[in-house]
Amino acid sequence: MSSDVHALARTVSEPKLAKDVSANEQQFWNSDPPSIPPILWLTAIHAKWAIQASQRAPFFALQLYHLALASQHCVHHLANEISTNDNGSSLDLSLSQADDLADLIDDLGDCIEAASSQAVANDPSKEEEKLDRIFNGLSALNGDVAERNKVDEPPGDNTLQ
Fold it and tell me: At what angle do helices 125-149 and 88-115 cross, to 10 degrees?
């Protein structure tokens, strides 16, 4: 009986890998993140700091943690975009987005520091507005990068007959 329990525990804890591993690698960079180009080094360090610091914030901890993880995800998306991009105009756009991302992560750092103060407990609405703006900025940034990486439909009639 006990060997059956151990076998069950092993099968539950060992996830089965999908046949198409490349899709997983593109979606999740926790185990194998892309190489970070020098332009994003400081931004990547700030994103890591935000992940750690957000977990200690007494107010808005889950929101801050989620935004910090999202910012790291955007860093990885941009790093991948910059390292695989051959088009000059698209690269200029990626570098512009790197600046926007750095600004959003700086704002996130300000929110994390503010969430550690007692003043937020008295009037949380100001920080909530900042968090909403950061969320919208990260969403727009990630959407822009995903849109550039989207595979275009081949020309022709793709409707079902």
Answer: 160
Q: Give residue 76's Cα distance to chain centre.
A: 7
CB count in 10 Å sphere of residue 106: 13
Question: In this structure, is the dihedral angle defined by the CA atoms of residues 116, 119, 124 and 126, taken in order, positive or negative?
Answer: negative
Pull the structure tokens for residue 30.
Answer: 């926790």
Is residue 115 packed enough to be buried (19+ CB in 10 Å), middle (13-18) or exposed (0-12)? buried
Residue at token pair 């992940």:
51
User: pLDDT 10s digit of each residue in the chain, 161 long?
Assistant: 444 444 434 333 333 334 444 444 445 555 678 889 999 999 999 999 999 999 999 999 999 999 999 999 999 989 988 888 766 667 777 888 999 999 999 999 999 999 988 778 888 888 999 999 999 999 998 776 556 554 444 444 444 43
